[in-house]
Amino acid sequence: MTGILIFIQQAIAQGIAILFGASGEILTEKSGNLNLGIPGIMYMGGIAGLMGAFFYENSAASPSGAVGLIVSMLTAIIVSGLGGLIYSFLTITLRANQNVVGLSLTTFGIGFGNFFGGSISKLAGGVGQISVKTTAGAYRATIPGLSKIPVIGDLLFSYGFLTYLAIVIAIVLTYFLNKTRKGLNLRSVGESAATADAAGINVSKYKYIATVTGAAIAGLGGLYFVMEYLGGTWTNNGFGDRGWLAVALVILSLWNADNAIWGSILFGGLYILYIYIPGLSRSMQEIFKMLPYLVTIIVLILTSRRNKPENQPPASLGNSYFREER
Q: What pLDDT sits at residue 120?
């Protein structure tokens, strides 16, 4: 029983970074923008948050974990949001190809993270010497009392606040998109920008806000991974393919943020399943890491065959809108 409990805990811990990325991309794609820069933006959010905490802790005589948390969160949100703004400017204002810009942003974001991660390591005295323990401790603080409950406490209440924030964001996002006027306007932009424009909806404004906000949410996934999961450390290329798993989770969840909650736990479990199966060769381990993508492909095939409108991507996803061509 203990082994199963540990596996579920680790699946949740692995899945939260993916959930942040998927939630941000769902919001973005609902506006019709396909931001394949999400993996890079997650790197940007992670390293920016770590840098904010590092410079704060090394400049304060008596650093506070709460202040370090606020500084690192604001830094991560601003930098990752800036990544979304760059994408928006290039694709909406300058009409650049969305796929090219997104993939370029991912390459840039990974390089950005690795460059500054290495630079901070040198400032801190060498690779692996980065220390933001005070801030990381604030991120990792569990719910007092509830986390001590046997079994239930470990399973549900033994995580830092970003874990619960990811779930709250997904739930609020679902409500916003389905139950509010602005959410319905955003969805109409993603389905048919020309029709939304004719109805008096500011298409560019909705696309900009959705993409920048989505990038900021995705950046929190990188921050979670660095500060809560790794305890305030940085390893170049340490994110692996979690950013791409976030993009795949958007499909698995059928563009519904509430579905992404359980989907992220499933992906987290599949991603680490090979660790719990003894005797696997290195090649077999890599095959097991492919399971999340395989599940996504199967879901995509099944939903395409059923052809239910509510389970399909926004009709104008990936297509730029030029008002003069209306």
A: 80
**DSSP conformation class of 34:** -
- Tens of pLDDT, residue by residue over 198-247, are 999 999 999 999 999 999 999 999 999 999 999 998 888 888 889 999 99
Asked whether the beta carbons of 110 and 40 are under 8 A apart, the reply is yes
* Tokens (6 digits) for 274: 């090979």
Which segments of 124-256 does DSSP mark as H helices, in order?
133-140, 152-156, 161-179, 181-191, 193-198, 203-223, 242-252
What's the token pair of residue 282?
A: 């290195």
Q: pTM for the whole thing? A: 0.94
Q: How many of the other CB atoms lie within 10 Å of CB of 171?
A: 14
Which two three-digit tokens encode residue 288?
């097991």
The encoded tokens of residue 112 equal 């950005």
Q: What tokens were used for 79? A: 């930098």
Contact 309, 264 (CB under 8 A): no
